[in-house]
Amino acid sequence: MNANPILVEALRGSALESAHRGAVAIVDADGHSVFALGDTARAVFPRSAVKLLQALPLVASGAAEALKLSDAELAIACASHNGEPAHVATARGMLEKAGLDADALECGTHWPGLDGATRELAARGEAAGPLHNNCSGKHAGFLCLACAMHGREGLRAFARGYVEPGHAVMGEVTAALQAATGVDLAQAPVGTDGCSIPTYAIPLAKLALAFARVATGQGLSPAHARAATRLRQAIARAPFMVAGTGRFDTRVMEALGERVCCKVGAEGVYCAALPDRGWGVAIKMDDGNNARAAEVVMAAVIEAALRLDAGPAALLRSLSDLTLRNWNGRVVGCLRATPALRDALAALGSPR
Amino acid sequence: MNANPILVEALRGSALESAHRGAVAIVDADGHSVFALGDTARAVFPRSAVKLLQALPLVASGAAEALKLSDAELAIACASHNGEPAHVATARGMLEKAGLDADALECGTHWPGLDGATRELAARGEAAGPLHNNCSGKHAGFLCLACAMHGREGLRAFARGYVEPGHAVMGEVTAALQAATGVDLAQAPVGTDGCSIPTYAIPLAKLALAFARVATGQGLSPAHARAATRLRQAIARAPFMVAGTGRFDTRVMEALGERVCCKVGAEGVYCAALPDRGWGVAIKMDDGNNARAAEVVMAAVIEAALRLDAGPAALLRSLSDLTLRNWNGRVVGCLRATPALRDALAALGSPR
Fold it and tell me: Helix or strand or coil: residue A230?
């Protein structure tokens, strides 16, 4: 791996303590590069950053309409959620609409991502289950898709193994990912994701292209274009569902609504659709750091790309230039987008 | 910051997903470089990796003897512990020996580092306090030093503000750090650590030198040399106290005893004394990652530097070349020292 530029730096006092390297691609729906920093041709595993693309068949198939999925339910189908009570209830409700329960989930179990939710669960003497898995909404969406493909009769048996690359459900999901990115996934390096579905390594610029298509509808089939619009609307109306308390995606989309549709993925990947400008964004931090690095870069990109009112502008600046405090609340340093990254992003020009 | 070499790589399936860059310095007690990879002249904040150096005055002052501190108590004075019940009890016991309680601690509060300990605390309806802070043992050690310097009469008032650079207690601690590293800390960049004491940026090779001195006693004052030996012995006898359940430092020192005295610090720093070879080791990962990166490098260094029996050899290999599994227990990839790092470390030659 070539050394990508430093995009984020952590200072303690006034001295550099740590730094994060990475690459950023911004592409329009024609596939033209709007902005590229670092190696944007390298194939990266997008992980959870492409959940919206993986949810396109849920809407395009008619499953969402047939099961009367709500905005919250469509949003959580695209989520890496905190495992808070509202997330668990929403994912459970989707399964019930398909006549299933949590036993049908094949995502595995982990404690809630939000520490407070874990402590509340423990204080009630309960243990975590698959509904607390950050991917439970995505998997509930897969099972709703399975319901539309097969019907309720024998659904549990039909759905079993839905995480496998060869299953009919995953075939639909992978086809949508391939159509949106324009990459032949049969030829792509493949790995297994944290929740057991396949993840395909895709050039960063192609991930950005897919989100430019999500932003504009251009380059997608009519059914996928309508599905993308519906999912973006649902996320904008229920941004809590896509992440949760204190999370970047939730806070940014609560502030900006449909102007940004962003999604974090594991290992320092971030994707976003920016409908105002018709652009897609894809970020990969070399070291795989999300909270410390990819989020800071995404905040700086949004600041440079969009015209923001004072409130959202202040929020985004607090996410791209963070004051670091210690356990006593003392200011000990900062975490920020590098001046070099900001200078480069200035080339995006004035937002419309 | 120059791009240091990639020392650790994370693979998903057979494809590279993420990578960690960093620098490694191994130095002997004469200050000669035994091994250097990356920029070992750059000053880095050592954070908690130098807690043993900061505990030298606790022993050298006679405080440890006067208060009859046990091996466990001396070990936790050098610890970044998990906040497990035994850690909390040990730190509390030290404070009691000095006639103080947890109110005297100025480290701040956070929930235990071990998730299971947090859940147990929450299940009992309790909240975290300063004794759960991973630094509580180090701070209890500072307060025991304060007791030796001032006596019990009016100790609470004397000790107040002991975390400040200008306090007499911190003066002793800083002087020990300066003597061990040979660096004029009055001229060094200074920051505030997570627990509110000062942290000084020190060239990586000088940190390695300090630990070569800890390994050999050479270059330290007689009192500090005796203190270093006593602390290394205490840690080897009570390695649980220095970290806790499942932690690298505890597992490695349970297996290797006094042959390794290693300590993690925040932001991807790791230091170790290797008495078998008379060497000190200092590692800094550029991106500040500990669990994913600095630990892997330290394991590879120990493997290359020491002659290991089959059991410890297998343990170390499991820490330098890790199988990654997902929430369903499926193998999804690996995290490992790069072949280039292993090749370079081969130059250390056959262990004695």
Answer: helix
Chain B residue numbers with beta carbons less than 8 Å from the beta carbon of A19 are 1, 286-287
In SS3 terms, B41-107 reads as CCEECCHHHHHHHHHHHHHHCCHHHHCCCCHHHHHHCCCCCCCCHHHHHHHHHHHHHCCCCHHHCCC
**Strand A202-203 and strand A43-44: pairing?**
antiparallel
Contacts (Cβ under 8 Å, ≥6 apart) of B261:
B52, B211, B214, B215, B232, B235, B236, B253, B272, B273, B275
Hey, is the C-beta of A350 within 8 angstroms of any chain B C-beta?
no
**DSSP alpha helix (H) spans, chain A:** 51-60, 63-66, 71-77, 85-97, 115-123, 136-150, 155-159, 168-181, 204-216, 222-237, 239-242, 248-256, 295-305, 310-320, 339-345
B120-154 b/e with 16+ CB inside 10 Å = b? Answer: ebbeeeeebbbbbbbbbbbbbbbbbbbbbbeeeee
Q: Name the H helices within chain B.
A: 51-60, 63-66, 71-76, 85-97, 115-123, 136-150, 155-159, 168-181, 204-216, 222-237, 239-242, 248-256, 295-305, 310-320, 339-345
DSSP-based three-state secondary structure for B259: helix
Provide the whole-model pTM: 0.97
Using an 8 Å CB-CB cutoff, list chain B residues near A18.
267-268, 285-288
Query: SS3 of B126, please?
Result: coil
Other residues' Cβ atoms within 10 Å of the Cβ of residue A246: 10
Q: Evaluate whether A333 touches B191 at the Cβ level (below 8 Å).
A: yes
**Among A134, A197, A200, CA closest to A169:** A197
Is residue A193 a contact partner of residue A47, using CB atoms and an 8 Å limit? yes
**Dihedral sign of CA atoms B38, B39, B41, B46 in order:** negative
A153-174 per-position pLDDT tens digit:
999 999 999 999 999 999 999 9
pLDDT in tens, B174-228: 999 999 999 999 999 999 999 999 999 999 999 999 999 999 999 999 999 999 9
Q: CA-to-CA distance for A157 and A104, rounded, in angstroms? A: 10
User: Which tokens sit at B65?
Assistant: 């003897």
Asked if A18 and A10 count as a contact pair (C-beta separation under 8 A), the reply is: yes
| Cβ count within 10 A of residue A102 | 19
**ipTM score for this prediction:** 0.96
Mean pLDDT of B90-105: 98
b (16+ CB within 10 A) / e for A61-76 = bebbeebebbbbbbbb
CA distance B314 to chain A (A): 26
Q: Which residues contact B343 (CB under 8 A, 6 or more apart)?
A: none
Q: What is the largest CA-CA distance in chain A?
A: 65
- Nearest C-alpha in A relative to B11: A191
Are A267 and B107 a contacting pair at CB < 8 A?
no
d(CA B117, CA A86): 26
3-class DSSP state for residue A109? Answer: coil
Measured torsion, CA atoms of residues B145, B149, B154, B159, in degrees rounded to the nearest 10: -50
Neighboring chain B residues of A1 at a CB cutoff of 8 Å:
6, 16, 19
Largest CA distance in chain B: 65
Looking from the CA of B156 toward its CB, the CA atoms found within 13 Å total 7
Q: What's the whole-number mean pLDDT along residues B225-232?
A: 98
Closest CA to A342 of A7, A24, A9: A7
Where residue B247 falls (left for φ over 0; alpha for ψ -120 to 50; beta otherwise) is beta
Residue window 13-72, chain B: list those with CB within 8 Å of chain A.
Answer: 13-21, 43-45
